[in-house]
Write a structure and sequence with these properties.
A six-stranded mixed β-sheet has the order 1-3-2-4-6-5, with helices on both faces. By secondary structure, it is α/β, with parallel strands linked by helices. The chain has one domain: Uracil-DNA Glycosylase, subunit E (3-Layer(aba) Sandwich), CATH 3.40.470.10. α1 runs antiparallel to α5. The two termini are 30 Å apart. The chain binds uracil (URA). Uracil binds next to loops.
Length: 198
Amino acid sequence: MEKRELIDEIRTEIEGLTQSPLYAYRVENGFQPVIGAGSLDARVVFVGEAPGEREARTGRPFVGASGRVLDELLASVGLSRDEIYITNIVNDRPPNNRDPRREELALYSPFLVRQLDIIRPAVIATLGRFAMDFLLKLYDAPQAGEKISRLHGRAIEMNADYGPAVLLPLYHPAVALYNASQRPALEADFQVLKDLCG
Ligand code: URA
């Protein structure tokens, strides 16, 4: 099957995920599930946590305030959204942007793993602690459990299910919104990403 068909299959499954604790909240609010967006041949896949309100209204990842910061950071290293792929661990918006719960991670994360296995990126750039923790554990990295303040901007070589890959933990772009002093760290880490992308 073509990559596009495989991704469309994932989309259909997520749309019909009535067993999710977040499904009723989606329907009551007229929200949409947010599936990954971008190139299916991307060398780098960004993984965030869960959609915010604007994302759930539009069905597209990182289109709110965090998305604007992300776009600026991408532009600072000459990357555009067309050449990367962006997705989240959880595809439905949790109420009031609360952290995703364990059972939600368990339910949605297989969709993330399937997207990664389809795209097979050389670099997985995690946005925030949630995505970093999840992927370090998933791929049995010895750094699992370490703090993002220690690991951000450090390229971690891993054996993903689909082959060797580099995990690059990044702070979530939202941190630059509530703590401007963190922005230089994000900018420096994007330079690391640029070097990894060649
Ligand atoms: N924050 C995330 O982690 N993901 C989005 O899609 C938007 C904001």
